[in-house]
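Appendix B. Chain record.
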Amino acid sequence: MKKKLLLCAALLTAACIARAQKPDTAAYMVHYKFSHLRDTTNRANPYTENMALFLGKSSSVYKSYDKQLQDALFKKQVKEAMANSPDGNIKISRQNTGSPIQYYQFPGEQKLFRKESLVINSYLIEDALPLIDWKISSDTASFGGMHCQKATGHFRGRDYTAWFCPDMPFHAGPWKLNGLPGVILEAYDAKKEVVFKFDGIEKVVPPQLPAITSDAQPGDGHRMIIIGGDDSDTDPAIIGLPSRSIKTTDKEFTKLQDAMRKDPDAFVQAMMASSGMNGPGNGPRPQIKIKIGPQPVINNPIELPEKN
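Structure tokens predicted for this chain:
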């Protein structure tokens, strides 16, 4: 089993690293209160999360704002702990908050990229930007003092209502929603089981969050390891595909997820070996163990099968 895991990890790590497209600069950040009724037997407790949509001239990225804040705080704690450790060994407990998934929209190229994370690696999955047949109505509303117009459309098994702002001509929205002549400030399905509730908008002034990196230098035997980490040490005002992510497919990524759930420790060691972290060197070898907690009940996924 471990040999198969190691081979799978090595093949994916050796795969093509994502080529960064020309970076874009975010001009605005839209805040959303995301709500999803994952378990229909527990309607009183939907999943909720603070999300953010960074808007650039030619692209956008939708990510967890909760996770972004937590990553910045964790890296600060790591830096302080390393500075105060006489032998370089540190131990910091971390409670993961927020989804690691990010969605990059490139309307001009009609492309959508999804970034997923597993242990020390992140993966990039490319797809076509979904085409939604929106019906724009004459109904209007105001969100945060901004004039918005109503549109309705069917997408992935649900009927959505979206409110977009024509005065902000960004052809983007939260999650995979897109294709309207203005940024989507609020959206929800007919049953209000999936809700992207507008929670404010602000201009982005870099750096939006502190960029904190390790003081360790190449060749000193140390490597900063962020479990479930990503490229969050870069300026969040810059929109660009994560250069360290490994390009893969939905099918291959699902195989990796299944392998990690079956044997988390073997999966971690395979990831580390494939990245060269278990090879020769002068520094201490990191020992990482992960525990897969109980998985949430999801009998109502955000994407539903289409009815015949």
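Further analysis of this model is presented in Appendix C.
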